[in-house]
Amino acid sequence: MKTRFFAIWGWQSFAMGMAVLFGFSQCSGAIPHLVMRLAHPPSEEIAKTAQRLHKEKALEKIEKFGKIAPEKFVYKTVKGLIREQSTPGLSGVLTMYGGYFTHSDKEGIVEFPLRHEAPKVYLVITPRLKLARLGEETISHMHVPKPKVIESKNDKATELKHDADFLKIYEGEKAKFYTLEQKKDKSEVDFWEIKETPIPETRRISKLSLVILANPRNFFVRTGDFMRNTTDHMVLPPVYMIGKKYNDRVLLSHLRLTRYFEEVEMSTQKAKSGEKEIVQKAIANS
């Protein structure tokens, strides 16, 4: 398979780093974790974006250029600005899984207690989420709502102006759905198969889903086959964060929703790895 060993060293070093940091191999009896890391895009992706913008003469679309003529910018400057805009802070992204919610830390790490046994997980990236309730405190399922459309600026549209501005992020692709499945090849080598899948007609979100509440355009997920380190934990390949637009609004709009979920609590303890002292993290939720 052509893409299986793509960026193998970066992925293996990440998985090994997680094993050391969280003590995956040493924590006997520990709750298995579902771990995802938000990461900055690879340098080659940033370079491709800069080349495309330079070629298409689309520099005037970037706000930082203001009124200065695009031809006055050299390629190196363009590349630097693209890099600055496509490497946002990785913390504070709201995620949900298995009845829990948490926010990514400053390293982009997201952790949950692993709550399913199937060798796969669905990844959903959506800026809006609604809950179907059976009762006041009982949730039937989650689904991605259809985007609201305000066609004219009548009184109602004016009244909803703030929401209308916010809902612009739903134009085009309303949400992104991916399937990440653990597999073995003919040589019994473990790998991840990652595929983008259509939005379900019911718009329901499977209970096996890890949900990133954010603008889908802020993220880039590589599809294909990727090496996987075998552990008792489900450590997903990195998800690349290329922007943070509307993140604050998404967080504010879902404050009431989080009361239906339990927040992930982390505990830390110091341990020795050879001569070095490291800090191990563990999920404190029972």
SSE inventory with pairings:
Elements: H1 8-22, E1 33-39, H2 43-56, H3 75-85, E2 94-97, E3 100-103, E4 109-113, E5 120-126, E6 130-133, E7 139-143, H4 155-159, H5 161-166, E8 176-184, E9 190-197, E10 204-205, E11 209-213, E12 219-220, E13 224-227, E14 234-235, E15 239-241, H6 247-253, E16 262-263, E17 266-273, E18 276-283
Parallel strand pairs: 1-14, 1-15, 3-16, 5-11
Antiparallel strand pairs: 1-4, 2-3, 2-11, 5-8, 6-7, 7-10, 8-9, 9-13, 12-15, 17-18
Helix pairs in contact: 2-3
Structural summary, described in words:
It is a single chain. The chain has 286 residues and is an alpha+beta fold. It folds into two domains: 8-23 and 32-40 and 89-263, no CATH class; 42-86, no CATH class. It is 20% helix and 31% strand. It has six helices and 18 strands. The chain has helices at residues 8-22, 43-56, 75-85, 155-159, 161-166, 247-253, and strands at residues 33-39, 94-97, 100-103, 109-113, 120-126, 130-133, 139-143, 176-184, 190-197, 204-205, 209-213, 219-220, 224-227, 234-235, 239-241, 262-263, 266-273, 276-283. The protein has an eight-stranded mixed β-sheet. Strands 1, 4, 12, 14 and 15 form a five-stranded mixed β-sheet that branches. A hairpin with a 5-residue loop joins strand 6 (130-133) and strand 7. Helix 2 (43-56) packs across helix 3. The longest helix has 15 residues, at 8-22.
